[in-house]
Hints:
It is a single chain. By secondary structure, the chain is mostly beta strands. The chain has one domain (about 20-120): Immunoglobulin-like, CATH 2.60.40. The protein is built from two helices and ten strands; from the N terminus they run H-H-E-E-E-E-E-E-E-E-E-E. A hairpin with a 2-residue loop joins strand 8 (about 90-105) and strand 9 (about 105-115). The model is unreliable at about 5-15 (pLDDT under 50).
Amino acid sequence: MLKKFLPLLPVLLLAGCTSTTFTRLTPNTQPRNANNLYPVEVAFNTTQQSLRLDKLQPYVLVNGQPLPLRPVPLVRNRWEGLVPVAPGATTASYRFKFDYLYDNFGTAPKPSSVSSKIYTLKVVDP
């Protein structure tokens, strides 16, 4: 009987997997500006059906400091924010982080989070 189900094992294991992707929608390089704040935008997509979208808290982390992201008007799953870069600095590293709640069978929703890889923004003089 085990031999009948063995070929199905990889399919059964993959059926429970979720996928989350971050797509950075801003360029790697931006011209220096007077206020030292640079826009960043990300598309956040997940196949996790238990994730509660109404409890999503998106951030951009710069030097460990969380800065809020806001939803892009009229576009689903896209978020925007500002990354500060010190005057005279030529780069800044940042990552996106999304805190959320997810539904769990038989208990209250549980907290979790997911983070993107680290991105580098280059600031160039015009």
